[in-house]
Specification:
Elements (H helix, E strand, L loop, with lengths): L1 H26 L4 E2 L11 H16 L15 H13 L10 H14 L4 H4 L3 E2 L2
Parallel strand pairs: 1-2
Length: 127
């Protein structure tokens, strides 16, 4: 009986630890103040996140003709859509995803529960 109690307690400890780790992982799904600015010529995961956000925004606006390839390359099409996004929200349409534009995209993600927490860390924000 004593052995069985230890096994049950050990199992409960493992379950609690897993729950805490999952909770920590979920709570860390937030944008990162000071994340690098994302701009023309950049490539990688952070560019893919911008492309996902732009496609989500265009889809929500019923503009499927403005969807862009999610290839992780910040080229001409991504630049044009970033500028269109910035103009729509009265932001400086410089085509750069810095703290203001990134923050706007980040809050749209939270509201729309977009493509997952992994992108939250890639978006530059002010707060």
């Amino acid at each position: 009986m004593k052995h069985r109690t230890k096994a049950v307690l050990r199992g409960a400890t493992v379950a609690l630890s897993a729950a805490v780790l999952i909770g920590v992982g979920t709570s860390s799904a937030s944008a990162r103040v000071g994340a690098p600015t994302i701009r023309y010529g950049n490539s990688g995961f952070n560019v893919q996140c911008v492309q996902y956000a732009l496609n989500h925004w265009n889809s929500a606006q019923g503009r499927s003709n403005h969807l862009i390839s999610v290839d992780g390359i910040f080229g001409d099409n991504t630049l044009a859509e970033v500028r269109r996004y910035q103009q729509a929200y009265g932001l400086g349409a410089d085509g750069v995803v810095g703290p203001v534009t990134g923050g706007r995209m980040y809050w749209a993600w939270i509201d729309g529960d977009l493509d997952g927490p992994a992108c939250y860390q890639a978006m530059p924000t002010q707060s």
